[in-house]
Amino acid sequence: MNVAVLRPPSADLDPTDVTKRSGSNFLAGFACMDAERRAGMTAIYAFCRVADDAVDDAPDPTTGAGRLAFWRAELHAAAAGSAQTPVGRALQAAMARFAMPPGPLDDLLDGVATDLAPRPFVDDAELARYCYRVASAVGLACLHVLGPTSPDARTYADELGHALQRTNILRDLRGDAEGGRCYVPATWLAAAGCEHSWLAGTGPAAAYAPGGPIARVRAKLAEAAAGHFAAAHAALRRLPRADRRALVPARVMGAVYGALLAKLRAPDADLRGARVRVGKAKKVWLALQVFAGVRP
Fold this sequence. Notes:
Low-confidence stretches: none
Helix content: 55-70%
Radius of gyration: 19 Å
Largest sheet: none
Shape: globular
Strand content: under 5%
Structural class: mainly alpha
Mean pLDDT: 93
């Protein structure tokens, strides 16, 4: 089906402004990089952000599809050296400087397109495909900027992406449900005896009891995220020292999300409570621990 390309409001934004306004955990490790690599990572993050906003901020799916088509065309234009937007030109420079192919970011756009017509995933295979596209693929793109050369670096980026996205899904269960989205596989909901609508926090009181349906869903998501974190750390340990140093920005982000997962797994964590966050001081402390080599 042909989609009419629509220029989104974000087309004229500078990538630095896009990143400054986001407050994302993705930015936590940027400070340790040299100017060229920081510009490359900023370009990747800004592209991810405007692509996500193309869908999230659209008034309807048709508009969202048109705006997403714009960014796909701009991605391919950047790869060809003919980008037309500030974000596209920054991405073009990163592609040229770091020999970064467009494929992983094409995969990202496929993942973002999933949210044009949200529905619960059927099973874990569908969830894994989504996590790869919206998170692991971004990590694989970043590897070209960060510079590690070992094949295990790709394993690390892939596993870390799955861990981060599953942690995001766990944190945002209620907010996503309130917005009509559910990333929990239908098979998981059925096994936990949980109705999709209960994720919005408005189900029967028994659904939110300790050991109840919501707790079982949350535990399943947390267990999956923890498993991917463990696999990422195992891959990291196999890397030579130079590659581990190159991956410091990703490791900082992994540490921040690991702390977020720990808070989400706390006994008093409640789907109906405030959105869980990691404070700025804690992020700084985690970053310092990674820089010092005392944390993976």
